[in-house]
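Folds abound. A case:
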Amino acid sequence: MTINTQQKIIIITAPSGAGKTSITRFLLNKYPDKLAFSVSAATRKARGTEKNSVDYYFISEEEFTNKIQHEEFVEWEMVYEGKYYGTLKAELRRIWSENKVPVLDIDVKGAIHVQQQFPDTTLSIFIEPPSIDELKRRLESRGTESEESLQARINKAAYEISFKHSFHHVILNNDLNKACAEADAVVTAFLNG
């Protein structure tokens, strides 16, 4: 996939529950003319009020693996057993065609992979939770996790935090308003750069 220097990408990554979705929403609401949410593909079922092609492109595992074979993803991961997530090349092209910058809210491995492919046009931000205990409390308060899946997310989070120095900026989210302001400053500098 060829890319010119105007085709910038913003990546926001973090362990589950660290606040990346809240910070991503803040940035998208603040810059609707400049930024667009990159909708990821996922093999899991929609939760609650999630909508296909708005929150995710919900596709079957068979369709997902077919797209892998046809190299239709910029990045993809089997994040949990049988649960695939990925960023479609077509999604980036769609956003760039609107003269906007795609904002990718993706996992740590995927973020590293995108950053490696587009080293000169990517801004990557890692959202760090205040502590693993606080992360566990946030995940428990969602009420969407079994004890087993909660423990899997906590173990994965500890592992992901070890990669935080792989990204351009690390923002500690112990105060959401402060974290949003920090992300805003970094994104503004990137967009104007």
Q: What stands out?
A: Confidence is low (pLDDT under 50) at residues 1-5. The CA atoms of residues 126 and 157 lie 12 Å apart. The chain has seven helices and nine strands. The helical segments are 20-30, 61-69, 89-97, 108-117, 132-142, 147-161, 176-192.
